[in-house]
Amino acid sequence: MAHSAFTYIDGVLHAEQVSAVSLAEEFGTPLYVYSRAALTDAYEAYARACAGRRASVHVAVKANGNLAVLNVFARLGAGFDIVSGGELARVLAAGGKAENVVFSGVGKSADEMRQALEAGVKCFNVESIAELDRLDAVAGALGKKAPVSLRVNPDVDPKTHPYISTGLKANKFGVAFDDARDAYRRAAAMPHLEVVGIDCHIGSQITEIAPYLDAVDRLLALVEQIEADGTRIHHVDVGGGLGITYDDETPPDTGLFVRTLLDHIDARGHGHRSVFFEPGRSVTGNAGILLTRVEFLKPGEEKNFAIVDAAMNDLARPAMYQAFHAIDAVVPRNEAPSVYDVVGPVCESGDWLGRERALAVRPGDLLAIRSAGAYGFVMSSNYNTRPRAAEVIVDGDKAYVARPRETVESLFATETLLPD
Ligand SMILES: *Cc1c(COP(=O)(O)O)cnc(C)c1O
Prior knowledge:
This protein is α/β, with parallel strands linked by helices. It has twelve helices and 21 strands.
């Protein structure tokens, strides 16, 4: 399924039925291009496997928060997983429902808690005792009861990159497994909290099911203890983290992944509980590409560089995690390729998008950086006073501007000079 919305038609890369060449000409580069069909297919793979079961899908907004993208999911009936008050506002503006929102994150402010309580979110995924105390106080002041789940750190190794593994002991996220039962006792005793569930999120870009099964086993053992203490657990939130194919990874098929987890929870005698999934990367990652144009080719003694008009401020993952993104010519040339490092114009040696790529390119050619739909635009910045790229969403043979390119003037419009 990977990349299937982005295919070559008569030698030109297309997004669905729209040529990437015409997109670049109309909207300029660098340009994020999303496919509505690819977003829909990736979400529906979760939704289909959940249909008829006590299971729901909460799309992680932090992977791609564009309103048009969120709206595609909202129209399909998705819930959302948020990590800030800003993301809650986005979900509501995109047509999502607060009652289907779970609020994750390790540092929620009192303001964010108030905002989420007033909107009526489904659940707060709480990560510490201090956060329980704060939420209890905020809910009390509003005369409300806050629905809570504790994010438990199951201490399983998801076998992914250390920067994106979150469920190990030496990690800022979650309540330690050994402290969780006691934390639940304390939560249950707080007057303005209502314990409703348990959650975990063990990492990202996970390409095996086994670590999830280990995490679920640990969670369910804990659920039995919590219920023995007299607190009912209605839902088990298994988090997100399912990986995608960037290069040669072979993550499990989404439907198989969902069914395997649900069947496992059933078989363990917990089939009466609701199960939540919080996918981010696996519903948006391969539904987007970043189009960029080659500015210069710079041959070097040790390396050749293809300097392009996208940079680390547009797509941070290579600089941040040494992440691999496939890079393809939009109109492949029938010429012998050379090996290039594909780099941006930002003044940092870490500003690279791909290393040692065999490409037959000339200045002015367009390249497509694949798998850019997740943790792409959302992580972009204005470093080097670079306006952020436009985002376009393609639907069949039409393209819509989901976010226009920023202007330079807008970048410092609210800055002021010192008084005389
Ligand atoms: C980031 C995050 C997700 C989504 O992770 P993906 O790897 O993009 O699927 C889900 N839940 C929580 C709590 C997260 O922090």
